Amino acid sequence: MALMAFVAVAGAVGAWFPQRALVSPEAMASWEVDNPALAGASRALGLDALFSTWWFLVALGVFSLMLLVATARMAVEARGAMVGQAVAPHTTVPCVCADEMAERARTAGYHELRGTADGVRVFMRHRWGLWGPTVLHAGMVVALLAALAASALTSQAVLDLSEGEVRAPGDDYLVTEFDVLGRAPEVGRAMRFDGASTETWPDGSLKSVTATLSVLEGDAGWVTHTSSPNAPLSLHGHTIYVLPGDFGDAAFLAVTAADGTEYRLRTEFTFVPEGEAGYAQVVPAGVPVIDARWDPHGVRGPAALSLRPAGDSGAEPVAVAPGETVEVGDYTVTLVGMAQWMAFRIVRPYAIGVLFLGFGIIGLGSLMLYLWVPRELVIVPSADGVRYGWRAARMGRTYLAERDAILGRAPDAGEDR
Amino acid sequence: MQQALAVETPLHIAALAIYALAVGLTLFGVLMSRPAFVRAGHIAAVAGLAVHSAALGLRWYGAGHGPYLTRYEVLSSNSWAAMTLFELVALRDRRMRGLAMLIYPAALLTLGIGVYTGPEVQTLPPTFTGVWLVLHVCFYFVAFAAALLSLGYGLAHVARDTRLLARVPALPDRGTLDRESYRFAGLTFAFWGIGMLTGAIWAYYSWGRFWGWDPVETWSLVTWFVYGIYLHARRFYGLRGRKAALLLLLGFVLAIGSLFFTSLLTTSLHSEYFSS
Known about the structure:
The complex is a heterodimer. Chain A folds into 4 domains: 2-52, no CATH class; 74-136 and 366-407, no CATH class; 153-246 and 343-357, no CATH class; 248-338, no CATH class. In chain A, strands 4, 6, 10, 11, 12, 17 and 18 form a 7-stranded antiparallel sheet that branches. In chain A, strands 1-20-19-3-2 form a 5-stranded antiparallel sheet, with helices on one face. Chain A has 8 helices and 20 strands. By secondary structure, chain A is α+β, with helices and mostly antiparallel strands. Chain B is mainly α. Chain B folds into 2 domains: 1-119; 125-276, no CATH class. Helices cover 78% and strands 0% of the residues of chain B. Chain B is built from 9 helices and no strands. Chain B has helices at residues 2-31, 35-63, 71-92, 100-117, 131-159, 163-166, 174-207, 215-237, 241-265. In chain B, α2 (35-63) packs across α3 and α5 (131-159) packs antiparallel against α9. The longest helix of chain B is centred in the C-terminal third of the chain and has 34 residues, at 174-207. Chain B is flat. Chains A and B meet through α1, α6, β8, β11 and α7 of A and α7 and α8 of B.
């Protein structure tokens, strides 16, 4: 419990302080300017990357270990309880035959576990439900350990391709997140982006996007696959995701500066919904020099692509068509062509199957806790009737009517409320 | 579909009005010790729930997706889930009806805020599809309803013998209230947990990661842990009464915060939902 409280408090702190891995550098800098005292404390204590600090990971590890120990103890207890007689027969029901009561118990779904020489008979219903807490906690252990393994050994990368562009094995990614062993994802086949098809809602916003990827499979040649949100592509131990916010059209530009230096650039516009235009900047040498407007739906005028000097809102945008060359401020720009682009997330997953198995076990444990509530009935004949003991492992009041029916008496007749 | 949307908004407002009537009748009946008014309040609430159900069904049909995207839809669904769960409980055990004086106002407030935010329909972003999303959202609806009931029972348990609640007709004894509070906290824990897990699966298929310490995810985990702490404290350390109710209150406040406010206050993957 103390560990749960510790992880909960640490989680709350981590959710309260902006995390560098989750917010943009600009947003982080802005928060630091607005909250100088908190920012100092955050940096000093590592609260800006709390979920990857050694002490938080150690706490999670210890938590997993304690959970494992608790689960083992629960398993031992459940195994012991399976044989029954956790309740002593202490209440007498007069004028009842033990055999009649046993028959009613069997009718109610109780199974007789055993009888002893002195006449004690033990019945149980849903005795596998005794394992409910164990299964639930075991699922948590499996999920937590799998999550830790997945965090450490999953590598991923962002691959940015234009229509028709091929990534050969070993080529660089746009962004790479290595696993703890320093491995990056590598499908090991040449991949080509063949384009994306979209579907829009009546208001023009994006409903779905499907990317077509071809993979060079040796003698089989190029094999075509598709990937879309919620339906990623599984390929040679890797999973390839489409990122719905990271695709659109790209302008391929040849930009020549006043000093004669030529830059070959790809300027990306994200998907432009119906009735809107898209904007991007042309950045030849780390500095934006041209503002570009992509207007595929003709919202702002007949020209699909127009350019003007960066930050000069008074300048009239210059329209440019594929193959044309125009002057924009101090630069000469040729639009070589337009093509679709898309960013893919390539993940080499680890232990995901085990993680989801853990989730399934947690779900099963939760169901067992609520649907398979174990009940135990112990009866022993006595001189004036039958002595009985009854208990439900959980939510006992719910099953009092069942117990009273077995005892052959009116509901709410008395004790054990 | 437009016709359905044209009808559902007035129906939502009608449900709101009937719930308000139910709250008024119930509170008057309790405060003035008039059981007939409490019964009338209950009947009004059931009628309101029927209208509310129709409104949500039409919304589903008219919007083309389940009622789980905008504040209007989410709050209305949460209110509906709370009312439905409570009425099912009250149907099984009539003694629980007295608790309506806590549940009805909460459901009314939730629906009222939802209606106030406006019924504009939003289209679903591409990732907001699939069975895991639906399961994720539905489990949280039930978890919210169970959390509300658990808190209601907990507070009623603490206040059972005060002058106000002593007047509530046929409210169960303190022991029953305490047990039901515990039981619904367990239900909250289970459904909240499964809601998180289905959300993790959905996130994995949508974004390629099952957990990202996103603020909404983290606050949700913290909430789950608080309910876990409550359950363990009761089971193993005999936590009862006022302290137990306070812990439940903390859990419920966290639940409200992580469900309704975190995505508005911080940058989050969940900001697409609730964005209207």
